Amino acid sequence: MEFSSIIGDIYDAGSDGGDWKAVGRKLFNCFGADAGTLRLKRPNGLWANVFELSSEGESTYADYYSHIDPIRAAISRIEPNGNWSSAVAVVSDLVEEDHYHKSEFYTDFARPAGQNHMLIGAVGDKDHTVIGFFRDSMEFSDRDKHTLATLLPHLQRAIQFSQRLRKAEMDARVGYAAFESLPGAALVVDAELNVLFANSTAECTLSRRGLPIGIKAASHADNSPRLSINAREKSAQLRAMVENAAHGGSGGALRLELDSGEDDRIDQLAVFVSPQPPQFLTREIEFGETAPVLILITELSRHSAPKPSLLSDLFGLSIAEGAVALALLGGQTAEAVARERDVSLETVRSQIRTVLRKTDATNLRDFERIGALLTTLSH
After folding, report:
1. Fewer Cβ within 10 Å of end Cβ, the chain: N or C?
2. Can you give the CATH number for the domain in which 63 is found?
3. Please, what is the Cα angle at 110 between 106 and 116, to 5 degrees?
4. pLDDT tens across 218-273, in order?
5. Looking at the domain assignment, is residue 346 inside a domain?
6. H or E segment to which residue 298 belongs
7. Which 3 state secondary structure label does DSSP give 269?
8. Count of domains in the chain?
């Protein structure tokens, strides 16, 4: 069996596209070993020998003998630092053999388990992972040690990749759990409007018939569902805002009209686009790479504005400025606010400029996006 084929299988297993147990069988054959161990930390936090997941001896080892294993303790202290030959050893390289053969570990576990001879390697990752191969009757040769030293850097990279994948999955679960807890419709999309995540409210809202916006099912097995708008002009607007946010811009907002079913009223949906908050990113976005985009969808007819005290605490708005801000978030025009508050249109416009300045909003659409985020996160 070609060694390069085994290395490819190791990388497949590290990316969750392969089977560690199958890799183990190939390695046992390669080293002429009766058995072997590669103990990795699983998603549940427990350690498991991925070469022999159902082995009865594994639970015995994990429960007691792992704590008194002098071979593992010795090899775990080795840091390869690029010198992979130094990270490979047999028993005599690590412990005094006469003392070892009289130890409880050897007499009660290793010898009865057919582990009379061992070939051990330190992977050199953050978990101090150790790989081992066992024979009962024949010692491992220098050639076996050289082969394992050649294998170790590939094993290290595969395991580190697997660890990064596991961390990314856990970070994503934590971040998306926060979006799931939002009372409104929240989606995360990429620059091409492929849906990376949609909370349950978004899935429910966008599945309603007659909406101008929805999640279009994937056309092929390897495609993602996509967010789409059935009006060409609005669709182009959404795509431009998402592209802007994905490349580090502020995004934006747009409104979609829909028939309420009542003769005298037209409902509206507000779509707010912004970069995904950095605390929810699963990894750092590298230079030139597009970032995930957060989209919030709100029914304006059911819109609940943020509390005036929140606007005051965050942005230092006065009572009058806060009242104007809330009216704008409620969908009123500057003219309507002026009539309702019985002040001049110029006064309201001046207050609007102050609100935009204090909230660092570039325009009214940007302020609506900020208001939607505050509304969603404050309820």
Report:
1. N
2. 3.30.450.40
3. 95
4. 665 556 789 999 888 999 999 999 999 888 888 888 888 776 555 444 467 888 88
5. yes
6. strand 293-299
7. strand
8. 3
Closest alpha carbon to 134 in 143, 126, 144, 142: 144
365: enclosing H helix or E strand:
helix 364-377
Sort residue 316 into left (φ over 0), alpha (ψ -120 to 50) or beta. Answer: left
**Dihedral angle at the C-alpha atoms of 128, 134, 140, 143, nearest 10 degrees?**
-60
Overall pTM surpassing 0.90 (yes/no)? no
Instruction: Based on the fold, state whether residues 293 and 316 are members of the same structural domain.
Output: no
DSSP-assigned letter for residue 184: S
DSSP sequence for 131-155? EEEEESSSPPPHHHHHHHHHHHHHH
* β partners of residue 295: 187, 273
* Residue 119 confidence (pLDDT): 96
Residue 78 half-sphere exposure toward CB, CA atoms < 13 A = 23
Q: Residue 246, class by beta-carbon neighbours within 10 Å (0-12 exposed, 13-18 middle, 19+ buried)?
A: buried
Residues shown for the chain? 379
Sequence-distant (≥ 6) Cβ neighbours of residue 41 within 8 angstroms: 47, 127
Residues 17 and 110 in one domain: yes
User: What is the rounded distance in angstroms from the CA atom of residue 158 to the CA atom of residue 7?
Assistant: 9
Dihedral (Cα; 112, 113, 118, 121), 10-degree rounding = -140
Of 272, 301, 330, which residue sits at a domain end? Answer: 301
